[in-house]
Amino acid sequence: MPRTAATPEQIGEFFDQANHALEIVTGRNFHVGYWTGPEDDSSLEEATDRLTDQMIESIRVGQGDFRVLDIGCGLGRPALRLARATGALVTGISVSKEQIAHATAAAKAEGLADRVRFQYADAMSLPFDENSFDAVWFFESIMLMPDRGEALRQAARVLRPGGRIALTEPFERVPVPAHRRDAVDACMANFRTTSIVQLDRYPGLFREAGLRLVELRDITGNTITGSMTRYIDALLSNQPEVTDSVGQETAERMMRGFERLQNTPEVGYLHLVAVRVGDGQP
Ligand code: SAH
To answer: Which keywords does this Swiss-Prot/TrEMBL entry list (predicted)?
Structure first.
């Protein structure tokens, strides 16, 4: 990408100042919602929790003391939902100190502090040993990291052989004609993404990290329009509070980002699952 990537520190600073505004607009899940179809009138909260449930299902940890790493944990809601649903021992990491404080308080308040812990850490240098986790996920976070391949290698290193890795992120759905390149880049820049991936890049990215791709779902139609419509509504009806919290410029940039994504059909949304190969496991 021609753009200069934000460093993990800058991403952390961005969230530290924007967490409150984002929470007003998107709720405590900083990821899109999933709607089953046009007749599905679920709220944003229901739909975003539903996508979390699909992520939980896709890592197949079952019930018990399985160890799961949530890379880019946001305010901690997905990790807490995962622990409640499965009994997993979850570690959530983020480069936003404010998110770690918020998520830690939420774990305590929900009586899950013995199963879920949150810590400040950078996905580009994970402070965990090899084979520390039974599953790992990047839930709408990897596109903010400086090097997608390195992020996947780091995740694969701490994952046990046979363990699953799940991720969701926006992606380039169709070839982008030259005259639309700027529009697509502008759309992604609004979300501070470091890069956007073309569909056919994923098998290689996983393969180079020692991972085998097992599932790839294009869920664009279930996620983007429903989420952006609701984000825009929430932003419009809470404009003074959002502006108060992040300032006019960031509030406007958020609005532009949502509108652009709604009007950029080349950008879609993916849910991918891979398995770590090794120790004789295919
Ligand atoms: N998964 C959460 C939050 C998504 S927002 C949810 O679905 O609600 C993106 C998250 O990625 C933020 O928590 C941000 O701090 C984190 N992130 C971005 N770059 C990171 C990095 N280099 N290392 C760790 N976390 C990172």
So the answer is: Methyltransferase, Transferase
Residues 81, 36, 213, 169, CA torsion sign: negative
Looking at the structure, give the CATH architecture of the domain made up of residues 8-275: 3-Layer(aba) Sandwich (3.40)
Contact assessment for residue 95 and residue 120, using Cβ atoms and an 8 Å cutoff: yes
What is the residue extent of each domain of the chain?
8-275
Q: Which of 100-109, 180-189, 263-272 has the lowest mean pLDDT?
A: 180-189
* Residues in contact with 51: Cβ distance below 8 Å, sequence separation at least 6, in sequence order: 29, 31, 32, 33, 34, 168, 223, 271
With a Cβ cut-off of 6 Å, ligand 1 is lined by 8, 11-12, 15, 29-31, 71-74, 77-78, 93-96, 99, 122-124, 139-141, 144-145
**Is pTM beyond 0.70 here?**
yes
